[in-house]
Amino acid sequence: MHLTFLQSNLYWENPTANRAMMEEQLFTLPEPTDLIVLPEMFTTGFTMNAAGVAEPMNLTTLKWLRQMAAQTNAVVTGSYVVQEGGNYYNRLIWMQPDGQFDTYDKRHLFRMAGEEKVFTAGTKRLVKHWRGWNICPLICYDLRFPVWSRNRPAKSRADEAAPLDYDLLLYVANWPTPRRNAWNTLLQARAIENLSYVVGVNRVGQDGNGHLYSGDSAVIDFKGEVLFRQTDQETVYQTTLSLDELRDFRNQFPAYNDADAFSIDESSI
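Structure (tokenized):
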């Protein structure tokens, strides 16, 4: 899997400027890629001004994502503020090069910022199959909740090469500097407990509320080893992940066979 992420200093509540900045970065990528990951609320920064910045589905940012995916021949994913059915969502879009897309609405809303008073929580996880990989994208505060992030046994255990739901766990975030230790620690924990690659993509800079962000976007392997981490500067990072190495490790250390059997009844959420 050829993966790219953008650790950006976002323009506050300025979708036009943020899309233009990222478009320029994506047009100058040095290498082809399969997957491009943008931060949480990549068009605005982490704002509770949903009424002022929200877009209906199938408007400017969705069309922009479709264009970026087609031109890079890669999935492009990140979240922004969407208004739908009278509600606001912190919604991640999974946009494929052919224009087909899926969505994931942030499940765990950050009450310390009053996010749950403005946005509607999601009820279902998203796991996508892409170029041989199974990938689960989540959003920021979801990182603190291991049950929601848990790598569950695949519905069909007939394929021994893919015994679990996903091979790569993504977190897109606006995670501020004062809690960076939790970010760094929990990313490694999620990789270890789920026998999965984990990629966390955060922003840098200062937002319109004065909150500072150190980035610390990272790529972590299935043993919890940090393969890359970047702090305090804008970064366009590209790397290659090995599915063969992941499968070899799972075969040698199949801890998932001893995991407690339970499931989340998502229909009741």
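The mean pLDDT is 95. The chain has seven helices and 14 strands.
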